[in-house]
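pasting for ref
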Amino acid sequence: MFTQVVLIIDSRKELSQKYKKIIQQESYIYPVIADNLDEALAIVKTLEPDLILLADSFNENLPSLCSEIRSSSQNFRPVIVVVSKSSYLEDKLNALKSGADDYLSEPIQSEEFSLKIFVHLRRHIEELSDPITSLPIANMTYRTLKRAINSKITWAMLYVDIDNLDAYNQIYGDLATDKVLKAYTAIIKSAIGKSDYFGHLNSNNFIIITTPDKSDKIAAFLNYAFDSIAPKFYSEEDAGRGYLILNGNYKVGRKIPIISTSIGVISNLCRNFNDYREAINEVINTYKLAKNQPGSSWVSDKLKICTVESCIDKKNEPTKILIVEPDAALAFLLKTTLEMQGYNIEATNNLNEITDMIYSYNPNLIILDADQENYDKCFNTCSIIKKQHSQIKVIISTTIHDKIQVLNAGADLYLPKPYELMTLFNWVDKFLN
């Protein structure tokens, strides 16, 4: 995912391939070879490499080449390492004065070469890292995203934020807030691969650039994992109460929920992005949809089911879900959230309408609420549905904690109330995708 890019500028095919092979041993380093100067300068502009390996295999004056490369990368500062057949001190000094950061005389032992490149890259990343999380800051994030867009590969980006962190900081202070950030950083690192990019847009949120097949799984895991650890950062009283009380003017108390995480997910599977700023704006807008929901949640921009190879034809009808829920607020939340995930949703609070709606709407899945007043009727309705339409999946959510009774009625899933929204959404995804 172009986590770190090394540009090798060398007209010698054999040696440039040798250097590329040595560098490529680290999976997170992406080496690119340019055997002419015009190509090299074009790559400098498009990929903005972290390190440039410049060989003196061209007719041009080496110090002049260093100066030209340095002037063409004014918006960022790559490490420039010169590789030369000369070991004269004067040649070394001239190259360093012209903008090079290091000078290696050939022949170079592979171990020494590999270590020096690694050390330069490590220092380069450390200089552009957040002091609390040790993650790359916004400049590196923009650079990595630009590389992904310019390379035409398929990618996905997650905007990850911690909700209510400012209020938490007012009560518990900077040290406790730093612990939250470090803990979430560790969780995210455990969920991504070595070739995935992980950095900041600002100090309190994160950006992950990964592959589309992993993005939704990462988002779902992070919601679950963060909710598991969040109460541990509170006192027993606050954790037990489930919220903080902030005192405002005239000692007015304000109820603040405990910290949660909201995540927006976008990809270039079904939409092309021509500029990194366009992608950043889109992922932030998608994240805002997740943030509008209570607690931890994530929203993907996938308006239809897509594959890595191609998107399903827009003419194809999206998967249909029928929600039968007497609680209007919950029904609205489920309908809105599932629609944002690309499903076609109909909702009703009347059990008597189900039969007619099945014939007119033809749903793929039904989410059926069974409360204390109607659970017998609900179970009978479920039995009829499964006998007449066995292909329709049925999820029954209920406060009746009798798993056997629910499953005997024909339900494909028993979901006791109260439940986490992500639990329901994960099961919907399993049944339909």
